[in-house]
Structures
1.
Amino acid sequence: MKINTYSEINQEVLRTLFRPGNTYYLLLAICVTAILFGAFCWSYQISTGIGAAGLMHPVMWGIYLVNFVFWIGIAHSGTLISAILYLFRATWRTAIARSAEAMTVFAVMIAGLFPIIHLGRVWIFYWLIPYPNPMNLWPNFQSPLVFDFVAVTTYLTVSSLFWFTGLLPDLAIVRDHTRGLRQKIYGIFSLGWVGSQHQWHHYGWSYLLLAALATPLVISVHSVVSWDFALSIIPGYHSTIFAPYFVAGAIHSGLAMVLTLLIPLRRIFRFENLITMDTLEKIAKTMIFTALVIGYAYLVEYFMAWYSGNVFEQDAYLWRAIGNYAPLFWMMILFNAVLPLTFFFKKVRTHHKSLFIIAILVNIGMWFERFVIIIGSMAHDYDPYVWGLYSPSWVEVGIMVGSFGLFFTFFLLFVKFLPSISITEIKEEFRPPKRMDGLLSSAPHADIDSKLRREGPMNRRQQTHKGAFSMAGIFSDFDDVIATVKILKGKKIHVETVLSPLPRPEVQEALSLKPSPVRHYTFLGGVLGVVALLGLATYAHLQWNLVTSGKPILAWIPFIIIAFEGCILLAVLATFIGMIIKGRMPRSRLPNYYDPRFTQDRFGLLVFCKETEEEEVTKLLKDSGAEEVKRVEG
Amino acid sequence: MALNRRDFLKMVGLIGTSAALGCGSEPAKRLIPYIIPPEDIIPGEATWYATTCRECPAGCGLLAKNRDGHIIKVEGNPLHPVNQGRLCARGQASLQGLYNPDRLKGPMRRSSEGKWEPLSWDEGERLLIDKLSQILKKGKGERVVFLTDLIKGSLGDLVALWLSVLGSGTHLQYEPYTYESLRKANQTVFGIDGIPTYHIDRADFLISFGADFLETWLSNVEYARRFASFRSSKDNGRPISIYVGPRLSLTAANADHWISVPPGTEYLVALGTLKVLLEDNFTPTLSSDKKSVIKAAVENWSFDVITAKTGVGEQMIRRIARKFAEAKRPLALSAGSTWSGSNATETAVTVNLLCTTIPGTQDLLDFESISSLRVAATGEEMKSLSDKMQHGEIELLMLSNVNPVFSLPVSLNFLQGMKSVPFIVSFSSTLDETSRMAHLSLPTHTPFESWGDYEPKRGVWGWMQPIMGPMFNTHHLGDLLISTGKQFMDPEMFPWQDFYHMMRDLWRRRGRRRGPGIPFESFWLGAMTKGGIWDSKEGGTSSLPLKLSQYSFPSPETVQKREDGLHFITYPTLQFFDGRGANRPWLQELPDPLTNITWGNWVEIHPETAKEKGLRRGELLSLQTPHGSIEAVAYLSPGVHPDALAMPIGQGHDAYGRFSNTQAPNPMSLLSPDVDTSSGGILWSVSGVDIKKLQGTRPIPNTDGSLFQHGRGIAQSIPYDHYKKARGERQRPVLRLPLPEGYDAKEDFYPPHPHLEYRWAMVVDLDRCIGCEACVVACHAENNVAVVGKELILKGREMSWLRIERFFEQEEPFVRFLPMLCQHCENAPCESVCPVFAPHHSVDGLNNQVYNRCIGTRYCSQNCPYKVRRFNWFTFTLPEPLHWQLNPDVTVRQKGVMEKCSFCVQRIVEAKRRAKNERRPVKDGEVIPACVQTCPTDALVFGNLKDPESRVSQLITDPRAYQVLGHLNTKPAVIYLKKIIQRLEGL
């Protein structure tokens, strides 16, 4: 179906929010069962001891951490698509950014669970958190696991906020398309978004800043994850290439997961016109790049092992290729570095079946990669006397199955309850044909609209408020709005704002808005983050005054990592708060001038008037093409 | 149950919290208050009492640590002449006999249906007396047999008295390994029936023909010490040791050369050596009559025959002979009873002849300190007892701490014999294979609860005293005999109140042991405090006679040809001895020193033989001899002669307690009922074994990940010549010391951190370490290290803080042992990776692990290059009353917590506190970790590196010093001294 109007975009995307089929419920039931099984396995493990897992000496880290790295990796491409491609103005991201971001948030949540599941004494996991306590017990800020904790927490916070920020206008759309309790809930989460150009202005700045902050963060997070290994001295772990190698691997696996999720989604919901084959092809092309990067990393590891002349390194890498876990190693090479190269052929990268199969295989291959690194290196490290082989127990497999259940449950709920494609961004990309009233008019509303449309809240309030007032004109054509603004400005009549379903820089220009002050919030937050985390780490280490690994009490290098994460975290929080404050949110009630059509396809022009000007303004608005002109009290 | 509101809320709170947390530490169950405090017990203060180890006939001196009324640790008595403060693994584990959960709790009678019914001691004694009077009335007093372990001492005297008052009866002191062939050979060659003390330490060349003196032979702690002293290089070089035998035993692994020969042909090598000595006139001092005796023995043998039978070339024998002759005090040892088969006596006689050739050797045989094993029952006596029982000639059998049903060859039919005995009384403290056949069980005290004395060899009396009150409702055997004797026999003959008074009385009479003028009370207290009575000097025997009149050597023609089929040899292990250690979980979990297998047994097969028969590791085999058959697991090992199958003794219990039940076969099922015709000893090997592969495999619970070092230089060695040169040139080893001076700006990113007064460190001399693993058990005992069991060993989850790594080499010596424990690195990789500071560095340089703080990320273990950290996969618990042994100074860890060697930090703290009270620094040697304390060979030395005078500071200047994985620059504080390699040219 070809989309012709803004309202059709709304209808097209919001369709998934209503009336799911039986398949949906079946899938949900399967996923929830998986979660329950995983939960049972975890409970069993907690009650008997971590020995319920297949872990052993010397392989103390098993598939829990494989899953941790795997899920963190999955998370990464979400941020890549939504933030990095946003900064690069790659417009093909539009249709997939929302679900990729959702994938990020869910994957980080699940990834964050695994290090906790993996703890021997999970009931005191909160000792990892630097919280003030009467015993003055603090974590060791030199530990890569504390970097991890800070990085993953930051990442979860940032990706959630970024996702939520992107969702705000869409939540308002859903609010305006629902009623009753659902409307209330969506209303609360939309924070009273009205779509005024001022909001759009701060929103745009914030979104850009968040994207700019998320980009270094995403690179730092997987670097930090790689440092869990690279900072240790085990052959197979101890490597400077790990950070870029892990980041590339993360993006590789994340892109594969995006394909894994989107291809069925696109098919089930018939989103072919939004998520086009062109988009999928672009993902596949990116995967060629990431496959080459990790293929290179695999080769470099071997080169370094050979070139080092170090018997331990050489043996570790030789064993990978010919030892007990060699089948996994070769599958890893094949699936991750070789198979995606078939995307060089256009036929392979433009057919949904081949795309889907290769994406699944890359997911498996990337899981194996983490297994080979994490477990393979430990099983065969320095002292031959303690070499040993690990295989996961049913408990570990059960928890892993549960984690997949949890992920897909989250995703299923997401497509059911939230617009899985960014309506606003699609609208931004979409240029409706000009002056074709027949098409633009909302007279013959589509099914959903007619069912959901009802009296907006403003109509009721209109009657109750008296006193100062403003005039609101509702336009269907955007060019008329700009023209009107210009006329009004010429007449020195104050234009309060323009409400629109999408941001329009032209209007912001016409309204002569200054650069948003949100950026000052960001700066202050960033500075505060650095100072706070450096201060906390310094304080904690001076309090304890314990030497670890022969390092000085205040070893500044590890603190930089902590300070960096703190910088991003507080900058992002400050940006978000800045946007909320500057955008006059949250609002519990929508203003009287608001009309639900503003989130669909109509533009509102709000003009403050004196009694004397009422007639003039009304006339002016009507003449400029306003479909409707209302007097709004209050 | 009445429940008030307050209790209800408490319970709800407790249940709710525990349900929410899912776990948490167990609440303390009960406290035992002293209403009237005992005099010598100060809560929290330990007291050490001297006693004697009765785990084997060696009779080492013990010090038992009593704290708050029970024993928590035993250590060697430093004053005792046998072990000089050291203990073996079995000695360290002796407490698990005292606290064994399967000990009998009180007297019992077996009903006609075969059920055990408890009864009171009075009833029990009455039953015994009734039975005795019935037998005496019938005039069958001589049909009473009292079978005990070797109890040479007051208790032995009492048994003899008791039997003599009874009028008749036999007292047999049964020990499975009594070295009849050695006794016979000494009788033959020297005219002395007995086993001397061998001064291995004074020898300068040692050749052992199957004598495993580092494991079980005679007195393993004593000989391990003497061996280490023998080998520590002397002024005129480092003496060479050679081992001739079919199996790479621990002793063979520690010799410079292992000469592998088919079982039973060891003596041919000795004979060949003797032949060379005589023919090449290496022994000019030998008198002509001696020469003629030797000539008669060797003249029939040609080197061709010897080589054909043993596979040892003439050149090699000539070199051995030359080395033997060049030595001033060469010593040859023979096995006696272990695995030698029908040629055991020949071996022993030939070896004795060797010992007579060089005059200096005579100083090494101390027939003054003759072993008490001479009074033990021979295999022949046991066989005849078995026969008598089967013929119904025994009316009453009394058993005390013996298990012949298990430890004698099954084909001897001891079990069937016991079934024909009308009444059997057992005084053993467990229900083993033998005592469960009893009709009446009157369990007696273990040695830790008893008064007593024991004379392991002439002139050495080890005394025993009760270190704690009886655990269960048991009685002292002596008390029981006195009480029954009084009631049933002549009260005049038993004038003592109990055994304690009798022992005092006997010692009052053995006045010669007392110096003149010393009052008895001070003598008694002095001896009790010291742990016994002994002469401090060690003697030799000058000019041993050489008689060799009534012994005729078999000629080559009469020596039967090697039979087809394989020889099956059994050997006692240092963990289990004859199997009596099998119910001690520490010993079950202790990896075998060479195979590193725990909780079970195996058949060692040479890889070539296995290939021939198509056998692989772990496969289930059926072994069959004319005397029986067993199913056992195959273990491929180049450490056994291709013609031999070897199997350790000790497993295969079907009684004796929960820990001994390892579902393993008992090799005794395969042995022949015959005894050695010349010495009367049991034959511990059998030829002509049929071997068949069965369906299926069994997982082998071993603790080693690889047999080899893979060129990684973990356990390093140095040829003796290089070492001599380096020492001569005063070369200093390249070490990255865990001290500020160990830092180098080129290699170290961060500056050094200072240590105030102490920097604790350990030096491990790999040339002294024999891999006996006594330290491993000592560590378990001291540090409450958990025992995990077979299933978890199979999963690779052993908890041992200290392990002896065993690596095989391509060249001799084939085996390297390396004790691996926490290295307490200066730049410990484990520390900074922990998110919660659970591991961190102390100012004394210790790598501390705070269990309470550990949340179980296990990163520290991941990042430890030595992999010495152990994780509590579960909360490991001990069945009652084994937990009485736990050391209250050391936290018992719960699930989810990492643990590791602490250098026995509790001992360091104690020493520092003591030093602080006395306002002085801790002295060198004042802190002795448990592993160091027990090491029979002094391979481990602990001390303060900050003190330039300390032993560790001295030792690390040795050119042999190195650090394992030193290139990682973790600056480990455990510094190893390389093993010295010395090869006899051409071997």
2.
Amino acid sequence: MSSPAITSESLPAMHPLVTPLDDMDTLVATYEQRIFRFHLVSIRDRDLALTLTQDTFIRAWAARASFRGDCAISTWLMRIALNLIRDHTRTDRFRFWKRVSETAVDVADVSEHIPHRESSPEAALIAREQLALVWDSVARLSERQRTIFTLRFVEELELAEIAAITAMPISTVKTHLYRALATLRACHNAPHKESL
Amino acid sequence: MRTPLTRHLTHEQLCDLILALPEEAESSALEPAHDHLRNCLICSAEFEALRDSLALFRQAASSYAGHAYSRPAMNRASIAPSPRFRSHVLYWAMAAVLAIAVALPFSLRRQHTPAPQPAAAATVSQHATESDEALLDGIAQDLSADVPAAMHPLADPTADPTASQSAAEQRKN
């Protein structure tokens, strides 16, 4: 006796995929902006960040069956996003296009978005200088340090969550943050040393 | 236990203060570092500067990302090429028009000139055949003309035996 043929129409009814990732519209609406921000700050290219954001959700959709729910959806998505960034930034093509790209983010563009808490021109100038200093410091970090720095200080994630995303022990995450902050401190103190 | 003021916060202590979440800020593990900050102007100034810079970076990056996210959202719906791409297309179109404008007169001239070519070729070949015939006629006339005396063939020296003997005698002498 032959068994009935499995068709694509019969599969969902036989094995319903009831995961939070099935509702892609809600997923995108909830996390797209956050994933885009992470991509943008990490690779500093608007068009590329958009492409990678789309790719993140495409990959998430394709691999949704493998989501076991042992971590938050945001953590899982961030992990996919981080893998995409790693894949992309390791190519020479990325390094070339980063140099010539028109959509590369410049610190001057970001400076326009400094919150104007103090209206005095001096305060605004100091704020711009501070931002430029951090911007340059982050650019000097290694890929891992930059990722962890972004996850901690832009995404404001806890160390345990960063450890889950990067698949590193918390102590390693902390070490990377110490080193990143050492670079930042060195840049902060350099103008003072020069003035002395 | 208070941290002596003669020693400043170590890098790790300062980092722990910066990395501490708001709810962890008052934890007992960080209390000595907080005590030190209250009494050390140098450490507190550096801590404040670092914290402010990081906050500024977060706010500016988040705001810029929000702006960049909403701006391309409009562009994403549109598949129109970018203005730069359009200007490139315009340049190429202008270059193509110029190339056609330059090449057109030449092609038109070529179309007009080929018509008389067969007639001209025919006349040229006719003239050539005529001149060839005249040349051949001239050669035939020259050949049929009387040969000058100087051009007459010499007498065969073997035909006269006396002549040969005299020549042998000359060699002997």
